[in-house]
Amino acid sequence: MITGFAQALLEINLAAGAAIAFVLLVRKPARSLMGPRAVYLMWAIVPMAMLATLIPSRTVVTPEPVFPDRVVVTAYIPREGIDWVGLGLTALLIAWAIGAVMLGRALIKRQALFHRDAELGKAGPAVVGFNYPYIVTPKDFALRFSHEERKLILAHEQIHLERRDPRVNAIVEAVRCLCWFNPLAHVGAIALRIDQELACDAEVIDRRPNVRRAYAETLLKTQLAARPLPVGCYWPSESPHPLAERIAMLTHSPLSVGRRVFASIAVVVLAGSGGVAAWAAQPERTVFTAAPEVFVPFLPIVRHEHPAGAMRSGDAVIWLDKVDTEPLTPP
Questions:
Q1: What is the DSSP-derived secondary structure letter of residue 231?
Q2: What is the full DSSP assignment across 190-208?
Q3: CA 203/CA 58 separation, integer angstroms
């Protein structure tokens, strides 16, 4: 059971790492071709690849070998000693469980600290919560931003609510805990959050195409986040780099209807192909079918003049060290 779990965990991480590496390589070229919303949806390749590894792999049915002319029977006598392989796998799984629990505990603590700051009016604007997400704003929200700026910020957060982005982020953090030892999982989580914000910005601009300048000025007025928000969507950026990307994206012209349709089809094809590729990469399982029973006729051994050694009985060869057919007499 330990070996099977360790193998499944390894396959999940390999599939996730390959999918994340692919998205990281193509996300920027794809953004200029298909738009930020399509790139954000492209991250669906990662869970598709991970789930595909849980589907049973291909099975190859192989008949058992035919009963040979000469049968050699061997007996395996296990040696008494320590199962170092089993102990090593157990130690690795314990280390993985400890790391997953520690990372999960750290994320929960960060989430609790953000909620505490939000209750004190020191955090936001943001969308927080999982089952029932809601928008929180700081105490000085009305003083810091104008009426038009507040409308843009709330429109941005409302799109996060419509797309269930906080739940997506919760799933991302769960995957990070599961694959905490995989550096690509952490890099991919950061890149996904950036693409999420870019996709949301693009949606706001599509709905209000005449507010590009005001939207960019509102982004510049926001301060950097004091605390990261694991499960939720925080309006301020956690570093200057994604903020610069968000402002630069506002200068791009909107996509035509044809390019949007092409982007949607491409994302669906890529997600499906990622799942199929992850499933096909699994090693084949070989199942041996039971061979038909072979009945070897038994003939009594009689005494002959030829030297002892090998005597043929039916189709099987019986190898003897000595031929002795003398009856045994009781003592």
A1: S
A2: HHHHHHHHHHHHHHHHHH-
A3: 42
Reported pTM = 0.76
For residue 139, give the DSSP letter.
T
Torsion of CA 99, 104, 105, 107, to 10 degrees: 130
| Distance between CA atoms of residues 138 and 154, nearest Å | 13
What's the average model confidence in pLDDT over 230-242?
Answer: 67
The two three-digit tokens of residue 153, written as one number: 């910020």
Cα 20 to Cα 176: distance, rounded to the nearest angstrom: 12
Q: Are 46 and 188 in contact (CB under 8 A)?
A: yes
Q: CA angle, corner 129, sides to 127 and 133, nearest 5?
A: 65
Q: Which residues pair with 63 in a beta bridge?
A: 289
What whole-number distance in Å separates Cα of residue 271 and Cα of residue 278?
11
What is the DSSP pairing of strand 59-63 with strand 285-289?
parallel
- Both ends of the chain: CA-CA distance in Å? 55
> Which of 152, 173, 162, 121 lies closest to 221 in space, CA to CA?
152
DSSP-derived secondary structure letter, 73: -
Determine contact, residues 12/178, Cβ cutoff 8 Å.
yes
Q: Over the stretch 16-27, which tens digit does the pLDDT of each residue have?
A: 999 999 999 999
Q: Give the sign of the dihedral formed by CA 231, CA 236, CA 242, CA 247.
A: positive
For residue range 105-155, list pLDDT tens digits in order: 999 999 999 999 989 988 888 999 888 899 999 998 999 899 999 999 999
Residue pair 56/303 in contact by the 8 Å Cβ criterion: no
The tokens of 31 are what?
A: 């953004």
